Amino acid sequence: MVKYPNGTFAAFRKSVGDPTFKKNQKSNNYRKNISFSDRGMTLEQMINESNKFYRLKEIAVVHKKPTPIQIVKVDYPKRSRAVIKEAYFRQESTTDYNGVYNGYYLDFEAKETKNKTSFPLKNFHEHQIVHLTECLKQKGICFTIIGFTSLNRYFVTPANMIAKAWWTQNKSSVTLTEIEEWSVEIESGFQPTLPYLEAVDYFIADRKSKNGKYKI
Amino acid sequence: MVKYPNGTFAAFRKSVGDPTFKKNQKSNNYRKNISFSDRGMTLEQMINESNKFYRLKEIAVVHKKPTPIQIVKVDYPKRSRAVIKEAYFRQESTTDYNGVYNGYYLDFEAKETKNKTSFPLKNFHEHQIVHLTECLKQKGICFTIIGFTSLNRYFVTPANMIAKAWWTQNKSSVTLTEIEEWSVEIESGFQPTLPYLEAVDYFIADRKSKNGKYKI
């Protein structure tokens, strides 16, 4: 029996009681159209799996932050756990991921697009750009992971490049060519699914060199 | 008119629609029994205010992580924002606070006790101890802020000391004397409310010295 990596992950999601599991489960036919290398995962799933790998191997400790929720009403039924009956989504004030890698503070946001030639900047919110800039000032290693899912290409782009483009008037997107120029491209693989720390190593080496390209 | 600092904060909580605001609001009489220096805040409130101060002054970027929630059912009523109608609290896998300070990764948990002579170790959960230890291996600055609220005394204790005590069999608490010995004590003040970065500076200097006391 061939055990597809994707099957393993689906089983994992089922076991942890992911409520979106059924909704996102598609017929086996969809496999025909996609590359196996990314295992049919979303970018977020790929990063979460990579973080798990990095943590278990004691390479880095990076977690996705929970979505901030304003809780208004909670029920405490007998013999069972508390149920939140009324709550609202709050505005996030940071990025989705942060953590520590060999003494370095990492902070990043991940975004994907189905576009093939450019990345729309409206995908980033102002609070994310502000937060990344604040962390850069504190000498964090700050970046974005941009996935062109239709092309199966993934880029680790320094936050200062994205911030600069984001604040440029009348600039609504960055071209794939610009992203290629500014970023370290990484290939999706098996373990880790998305080896983004390879790009971080580049940025750290770049920071130490006198004529760094990325100025991260 | 005297504008009490506590009043300002209450107004802030009211303005952001904090659902616990009314519940925690007490008559003015309670002020007689407490020191004004901590402004009647909980330890968490003191740390959140300090983080706000540090961020605005561009000294450090530290945020409290949201409580992780498993969302099951969301309603999208017309003309108003999404309402979460069924959700559950999930087990946290990290500590409450992390961030970056001048290139250093900070990670900590804050706990308070009304005890006057010892701190019960059951206040820490295994996942918090494990996470702090993982971050220590990645050279993060990891610690706990312990508040003896009855004494109005606050200690910044290196995570390795707490982890060592936590894993010691039959040790259910650490004495105030032990905490005094292991920690940097900080005094609550005005801005920031709890200047815990003073302790972090000690730890950083200690790490650089050959015969460091804290071995953080």
Automatic annotation (TrEMBL), chains A, B:
Record localization:
Cytoplasm
Q: Which gene encodes it?
A: recU
Identify the HAMAP family for this entry: RecU (MF_00130)
Specify where it is mainly localized. Answer: cytoplasm
Its BP terms in the Gene Ontology are:
chromosome segregation; DNA recombination; DNA repair
Q: How is the cofactor bound?
A: Binds 1 Mg(2+) ion per subunit.
- A GO term, aspect molecular function: nucleic acid binding
What positions does the entry give for Mg(2+) binding?
Answer: T94, D96, E109, Q128
Keywords (alphabetical) are: Cytoplasm, DNA damage, DNA recombination, DNA repair, Endonuclease, Hydrolase, Magnesium, Metal-binding, Nuclease
| Biological source species | Lactobacillus bombicola
UniProt-annotated site: Transition state stabilizer, residues: K111
Family the UniProt entry places it in:
Belongs to the RecU family.
Put simply, this protein is called Holliday junction resolvase RecU
Provide the reaction this enzyme catalyses: Endonucleolytic cleavage at a junction such as a reciprocal single-stranded crossover between two homologous DNA duplexes (Holliday junction)
On whether Oxidoreductase is a keyword of this UniProt record, the answer is no
Its signal peptide is none
Q: Which NCBIfam families match?
A: PRK02234.1-5 (NF002584), recU (TIGR00648)
UniProt-listed InterPro entries: Resolv_RecU, Restrct_endonuc-II-like, tRNA_endonuc-like_dom_sf
Q: Which CDD domains match?
A: RecU-like
As for what it does, the entry says:
Endonuclease that resolves Holliday junction intermediates in genetic recombination. Cleaves mobile four-strand junctions by introducing symmetrical nicks in paired strands. Promotes annealing of linear ssDNA with homologous dsDNA. Required for DNA repair, homologous recombination and chromosome segregation.
The EC number(s) this enzyme carries: 3.1.21.10
Which cofactors are named for this entry? Mg(2+)
One annotated Gene Ontology cellular component of this protein:
cytoplasm
